[in-house]
Amino acid sequence: MTTEGAATGLQAGSTAPGWVVPDLRHPVRTIGRRSFDFDHRIAVMAIVNRTPDSFHDRGATFELDRAVAAAVRAAEQGADWVDIGGVKFAPGPELPAADEVDRVVPVVQQLAHESDVTISVDTFRPEVAAAAIAAGASVVNDTTGLSDPRMAAVVADSEATIVITHSLAEPRRALAAPPHYDDVTASVVGFLRERVDRALAAGIPEERIVVDPGHDLNKNTVQTLELTRRLPEVVALGYPVLAAVSNKDFVGESLGRLRGERLSGSLAVATVSAMLGARIVRMHDVAESVDAMRMVEATLGWRDPVEARHNT
What we know:
By secondary structure, the chain is of the alpha/beta class. It is 39% helix and 14% strand. The chain has helices at 3-8, 64-76, 97-114, 126-135, 149-156, 184-201, 221-229, 231-235, 249-255, 263-275, 286-299, and strands at 28-31, 34-37, 43-49, 81-85, 118-122, 139-142, 161-165, 209-212, 242-243, 280-283. The strands form two sheets. It has an eight-stranded parallel β-sheet with strand order 8-7-6-5-4-3-10-9. A two-stranded antiparallel ribbon has the order 1-2. Helix 3 (97-114) links the parallel strand 4 (81-85) and strand 5. The chain is globular.
């Protein structure tokens, strides 16, 4: 599938003009204890942060019992994946790797015991990824895009899937200047292509790679909106695309909404991302997001209505 074809939304497999059905190298995947057909499924990744300073919930799930309860509740509400993080992406105080392990591994262990939901760990540290995989995680969500070359080796030596995300700053460090791109989407695609090649060279097979263009990560609102509009160019890489759009500043700045007031905007941009070819959406509000994505699937004819009694 060419980038030009993707941009039209009229490639083989499309069900309606304007919808992008990606031409994936490996659409059917087993990730952890669940299977996904990304030709006909848009997965919802729930977010559980064991951090005292997360940008959205401000530490609401920092305590272990609250984090576990939130993870289990997300699975019960229909999340396909639960993403567990112990350190936020944004700049902040250094946290030793051992402390990050202590934050995420107990949640992974208890969730794996309670549910068959796919579990991912949001980390850029290879040692944290290894510990989480051993505890039951089946996805490593690396928001620094394999910035540490040891991460690729850790994932290659396991059965885990890697999410390769575009970002520019060093882990927990701010950029020296506001982000500038001559062409933001071309830069993101080039970065992801190079990091995918790095993963393949390390021995990670294609069927265990997901890419994420990194909404808001070292990008301003105008850049992130352009990147979203041109998401088919990322989709054309041939790997499932994760859109991490929930409650981010580009949503708030687009609408003039503060934190806590961005649900409608988040659902809108998640739906647009799905229309443009994203196959995983990373969301805070699980029940609402699951309904939105199941409705997208029903509209496209990928799933039957729960009931169809109206005017029958």
